[in-house]
Design a protein that fits this description.
It is built from 10 helices and 17 strands. The chain is α+β, with helices and mostly antiparallel strands. Strands 8-7-9-15-10 form a 5-stranded antiparallel β-sheet. Strands 1-2-6-3 form a 4-stranded antiparallel β-sheet, covered by helices on one side. It has a two-stranded antiparallel sheet with strand order 4-5. The chain is globular. The two termini are 23 Å apart.
């Protein structure tokens, strides 16, 4: 079974991930992992921390001579900013009276986390709840991307909407190649310019912006997932994994919520015989029917809420005194939609790799590739 676990705090020494269940002889390219880590830090509207951190992955175990061994893989992404935070974050003794946070932020984990974990300093909550943790998830997700690519499966995506500027055009998978070279990951340059102007205005107002990302999976064969056990549905598995990302508030596949507004004749993808095969000429289902992949492109969209740390703060309470106040501010982004797109892609890669290995089994890449190629 393919699984992962991450550890680490936003201002701790490092972020780590253990990836268990990868087959042996998967070729690993650390330069590609670093490229996706850099993409996660890119995008218009990012904050000052991205100038401090330049994320690079270190592999501590599970890989020899650029190939997996079949043992757990240990990944590390160091926090360069830890040098500035060691006096306050060291596990060996720290000044916990400094950098305390009691003015809890609406929309963040602060208040509920303080109560749940019996704390008096929200730093003990926000350090783990921070989206900084996703750096190492991107690293682990890139390993899964390499696994899928070895089977001929590609994953790509783009920013469909940001700060209220939406792109309603439908793009082919090939049209999305290279879109991440654009500083907002938007294919339409006119809309990209409008979105940048909107983000600038939001920054001036000391506010934040969210958006919608779309991820495509190209080349996956049919039959992954299950209609027999509802806990094994592919769409449920993907949606659950993506909802586990910080700031994601909604996931839809294919038409998603729009399907509820149309008659069935305008929703369901009709099937036709063609050269001895069965084909669909539309993909409203987003590549998943009955909880299983149907051979069409998987289309998944995720909605990211605006970042809850506003530079002007929101009305809240001081957890220590119980008095009304303005929320604390931490160094933050105005808009992190590009980071969100990379994180969603990486999460989809890993969740999909889990389902592929669940069906195919196998301990090494040679037998897994052979089993995949034998599928109809």
């Amino acid at each position: 079974m393919l699984k992962w676990m991450t550890s680490g705090e936003s201002h701790g020494r490092a972020l780590t991930a253990i990836v268990e269940g990868l087959p042996s002889n998967l070729e690993v390219d650390t330069a590609e992992i670093d490229r996706y880590l850099a993409l996660r830090q890119s995008g218009y509207g990012r904050g000052a921390r991205q100038k401090i951190e330049t994320d690079r992955v270190r592999i501590l175990a599970g890989v020899r001579d650029r190939r997996t061994l079949g043992s757990p893989v240990c990944l590390v992404v160091e926090n360069k900013d830890y040098a500035n935070w060691e006096p306050y974050m060291s596990p060996y003794g720290a000044d916990v009276t400094a950098r305390r946070l009691t003015r809890v932020r609406p929309g963040h984990a602060d208040l509920t986390g303080l109560r749940k974990y019996d704390q008096t300093d929200a730093r003990n909550i926000l350090e783990r709840a921070s989206a900084r943790e996703t750096a190492v998830r991107v690293a682990a997700g890139t390993l899964a991307r390499m696994f899928l690519r070895a089977l001929g499966v590609e994953v790509n995506g783009y920013v469909r909407a940001v700060a209220g500027i939406a792109d309603e055009r439908e793009y082919s998978f090939d049209e999305l190649r290279g879109v991440q070279e654009n500083e907002l990951f938007m294919p339409d340059t006119v809309l990209c310019k409008q979105a940048k102007e909107r983000i600038d205005a939001i920054r001036e107002a000391k506010d934040t912006a969210g958006g919608i990302v779309e991820v495509r999976v190209h080349g996956l064969k049919s039959g992954f997932g299950s209609c027999m056990s509802y806990g094994e549905k592919l769409d449920g598995h993907l949606a659950g994994a993506v909802m586990g990302i910080q700031a994601i508030k909604g996931v839809e596949i294919g038409l998603g919520f729009a399907a509820a507004m149309r008659p069935g004749s305008a929703v369901h993808d009709e099937i036709y015989p063609e050269n001895g095969k069965f084909v669909r000429r539309t993909n409203n289902a987003g590549g998943i029917e009955g909880g299983m992949s149907n051979g069409e492109e998987i289309v998944l969209r995720a909605a990211m809420k605006p970042i809850p740390t506003l530079m002007r703060g929101l009305n809240t309470v001081d957890y220590e005194t119980g008095e009304a106040c303005r929320a604390a501010t931490e160094r933050s982004d105005v808009c992190a939609i590009c980071a969100c797109e990379v994180i969603v892609e990486s999460t989809v890669c890993f969740a999909l790799a889990q389902k592929v290995l669940e069906r195919l089994g196998g301990d090494n890449m040679r037998e897994i590739v052979a089993r995949y190629n034998d599928l109809i």
